[in-house]
Amino acid sequence: MRERLKPQRPVISRSCCLVGFSLLMVTPRLALAQAPPAAEPPAASDNPAAEPAPALPPQAPPQQLSAAPAGPPPKPADAPVQIPIGTAPRAPVAPAFPPLMPNIDYGGRLRAGLRFQSATDPASLKDVAQTIYADIYAGGQITPMWRWLLALTTNDYGGLAGQTSTATMSLLDGFVGFTPIPEFQVYLGRMLVMADRYAPSGPWGLDEWFYPGFFVGTPPAVPKAGPSGRDFGITAWGAPLGGHMKYYLGAYQLQDPTLSPLYSGRVQVSLLSAEPNWFHRTTYYGDRDLISIGVGGQYQRSGSLMTVPPAMAGMMAAAPLSDDYREVNADVIVEKRLGDSGALSVEGAYYNFHGTYQPWKWSAVGAIAYNSPVLAGIGKLRPSFRFQQAEANQVTTSGGSLDPTRVYDVQLTYSVMAWFAHVVVNYRHADVVYASPSNPSPAASPLATKANMIVLGVQLWDP
């Protein structure tokens, strides 16, 4: 009985030793037979552009004995990205760390300028004032379908007569986004009112120092929006066909439930080069060929309001009269590289306003610019010219229209890094003819102003 129950440990141990010894002898030969030759590179993709960039640098292979001489040491993965002087980054600069989610990106931009113009005589250049416009912003993604953006601004400190030396900050952008696919996305919060080409570009992506539609002592001749072109609302937008087509459709001014929503939309087609992002540029400084055609429009019930004077002491303020507000616009941008001869940019836009109490009937913008290919020091020269014309929504004593307002901008830009670093010298001449449509006396004398201005400005922007 004890003999049957006696364990067979010596026999099992010897068997294990024999099996283990055999595996040790066979495994290296199998490994050598399956391993590729050391000199054979890995197979490359037929379409490198379709391969996503690795989130982490590839790990170094194990050391192998080779007769080939050792090459130069690889460049560290965290080396700073160098952007050639006189150019702009063709894509967002990759972070030094993998963009995990949730993530956050932040930056800032600043425009500082000296404006030469008299505070009492707009046609004279005898006074000087400083202007500052600065934004700080942060944004990120919680998941691939949810993102957010928050930005603060100085409200464009303009150097006006009697203005204090303080620059206040306020909310510029603040919205959340649902982004399931590039063709359909929804943003909710305080954001740009999308109607024309210039809104998604802003003053930061323009050729000229001045945003179009802003003249001397008059309301702006631009689509309706709140301060800095923003309002509280919701926007559905998308970029089909890889960004060669883009649409925006939104409802704004939702911060006041007593107001009818301001409906605003835009559709554009971008040929030759795609523009798939929420923001875009009005000029790409000769970096690409582009033909962009867009149309937009706005509507708000009772959105054209009569301006009423403030109530006198002991009296109630009069209720403003109103009319429905409508606006339509169209624009075209053409940018063409001329080989070694630089690049040419041409743009045009037209706006038509409807509503009894709108300040303008129509306005138009036309501009041309040339990007020099010659590197002058650390940058390139870009001369530009822009012409604007607008007609006020007012009649003369004879029943005709007022003479149109005309504004001319001649500018020389010294571009170190496109929109991200440049210096400008701008000369502006304006012949402004304006009378408020809310004036109870149509026969009142219109405002007729001649203005001259020179601006020396610097723009810096974190790319």
Number of domains: 1
Largest sheet: 16 strands, antiparallel, barrel
Between the first and last Cα atoms, what is the distance in angstroms? 87 Å
The 3D shape can be described as globular
Give the helix proportion (percent range).
under 10%
How are the strands of the largest sheet arranged? 1-2-3-4-5-6-7-8-9-10-11-12-14-15-16-17
- Going by helix content, strand content and strand pairing, the class is mainly beta
* CATH architecture type: Beta Barrel
Work out the radius of gyration. Answer: 32 Å
Beta-strand percent range: 35-45%
Query: Low-confidence parts, pLDDT < 50 over ≥5 residues?
Result: 1-70
The total of beta strands comes to: 17
CATH topology: Porin
Q: What is the oligomeric state here? A: single chain
Descriptive notes:
By secondary structure, the chain is mainly beta. It has a single domain, classed as Porin (Beta Barrel), CATH 2.40.160. Helices cover 6% and strands 42% of the residues. It has 2 helices and 17 strands. The chain has helices at 2-5, 9-34; strands at residues 105-116, 128-143, 146-153, 170-181, 184-192, 230-238, 245-252, 262-271, 290-305, 322-337, 343-354, 360-371, 375-376, 379-392, 405-415, 421-434, 447-461. It has a 16-stranded antiparallel β-barrel. It is globular, with a radius of gyration of 32 Å. It starts with a helix and ends with a strand. The model is unreliable at 1-70 (pLDDT under 50).
